Amino acid sequence: MAWLRFFLMSLALWLAMGPASAQAPGKGPHVRIELIAETGDPAPGSDVTLAFASTPEPGWHAYWENPGDAGLPARAEWTLPKGASAGPLRFPVPQRLIIGGLMNYVYEGPFAPLVTLKVPADDRAGDPFPVHVKLDYLVCTDQICVPEKAELETKLTIGDGTVPADRRARFDGWRAALPRPLGAQATYQVDGRTFRLGVPFPAAASVAGEGYFFPLTDGAIEYAAPQRIVRDGDRVVIEAPAKRPTGAIRGVLAFGSQGFVLEATPGTVAPAAATTGNWLWIALTAFLGAVLGGLILNVMPCVFPILGLKALSLAKAGDDAGNPRGEALAYAAGVVLTCLALGGALLAVRAGGVAVGWAFQLQDPRVIVVLLLLVTAIALNLAGLFEVPAPAFVNRASARGTGGSFMTGALAAFVATPCTGPFMGAALGSALILPWPAALAVFGGLGLGIALPFLLLGFVPALRRRLPKPGAWMETMRRILSVPMFLTALALAWVLGRQAGADGMTIGLGAALLASLGLWWAGRRQARGLSRAWLPALPLFLLALAAVAVVRPAPAGAEPPAVAGAEPFSEARLAELRAAGRPVFAYFTADWCLTCKVNEKAVIETSAVADAFAKGNVAVLVGDWTNGDPALGRFIEAHNRAGVPLYLWYKPGSGEPEILPQVLSQSLLADRAAAR
User: Fold this and answer.
1) What is the arrangement of strands in the sheet containing 658-659, beginning at the earlier edge strand?
2) CA separation for the pair 676, 674 (Å, rounded)
3) What is the mean pLDDT of residues 234-241?
């Protein structure tokens, strides 16, 4: 069955990718594996744990013991001293990866399967204990799969079983990543085409992240289908499309990186009790948080000029002239519908098994190029280089000519996505665990928050009367509003350089230059009153947009973190540091996240915080989510966040981390570093 899955996966990839799948994979091995023993001196009659410390190359992945719809599990062939024996491989909780509609249970980052060897009781101190293993495993990218082999060995000596402290801490970290036995019998039922699994699980037990059931028994459920998981009192109920389950089945119930091994027997499982009141309260709280978060976004440099421009249009029209309410409603409709579209796209992508969060589109440098062109055009428009009247067909679609306001609102929502402010993180994170109608309502609340200031101006005459009277100052203010937009364009160019390298940034800046020349040309023709002023500039626009097709992400580099002594984040390294008893500050950032960069420059990278961390022996781990690392995405999601920034403080000896506010202060970090 496993080889059949491998054949089907290879065929699907070949059909999807064509000749690309036949490209040479490059020199292996593509997973670096080291065989490490917990002790070099095992005692007679004892157990000794070995670890296959594995690190896939970027872009490659290895497979869990049940690979899912495709792939192959690793197989080990041992050569051991007489009387010794090896137990089964024990794997950490895997990740999900869908390729060509097939679900894969994989590892895209460092992981360490463990195995226990039994040392014969009649061995004597000083006897050699050589261990040799042949490991067969499969590694894949999204285009090609390569079977690989590794012959590994370690030479032990029978002794007193002493485990060095550093080795113990390392193995404790690896053991923490293994799923734990559930300790209770689960039950499953096939109800029509639905597989329903009931798992005893105390209501008071705290878990982090969204639940998922990884079946170890093949043929129980459709792997690639979405699962519905509900905590119903002292149990967890999992529902998924049934396949052909028979007899007892085994699997791992995971919440984020925390897993529980369970066995389920056939029986009767009642559907989860109605939890409408609970999720309605969560939805309402998340909706209000999203409204507040959207309201705060209006002071960001990429949104404030657009809001200011609309306010100027009301001031120019006067208190009662024009149609202020219609303008406000059209602007709000553009904002809200765009947020709903982005939220719906996010939910659809996540339903396909991809771990993405808010502003996921910004992880693609081609989207950054589009944003760079848009923001540059807005800045030049505010600077007076050209004018963009609302298109005639848009105005005809609206009886009162509010099509321009609708498009402006849509643009404001789109350019606001790089920003995350207070209230937004928890609100959007909660949206990802709600039913899709409630989740969309939360995204709509974000749009309502962005549109709220202009809605107030449109519907409250007293606020409009406080606007200054029309005059020459309005043109000056408009020019001033172009400055933050130019700064936003500069920031986007920097992000493009980080994502696509110097070549990508050069292409993006060249595209912005071509677009600017086209806008200047159209503006000159407008000033002379020529008809069809935009027609000669169209070739330049098309050439500028062609940059989207040629920009590609730069190869992953090894750029050191800006904070002295900081290390790239990995769950394995986090477990090692916590096992060693050190306080850990883990933060997750992206180059396109304005809030992240402000916190880093004003707080995290300051000398005061660095000194406090040094005195408190605080370890710093940095998760860079600029290019959408799926492993980081899943870890962020496990902490009920839809995107960055995310700041976690791990106190020695504590269980769950403290989630810090999205707006940091130096005193907040210094106080935690001093509190041991």
Assistant:
1) 567-568, 619-624, 584-589, 646-650, 658-659
2) 6
3) 89
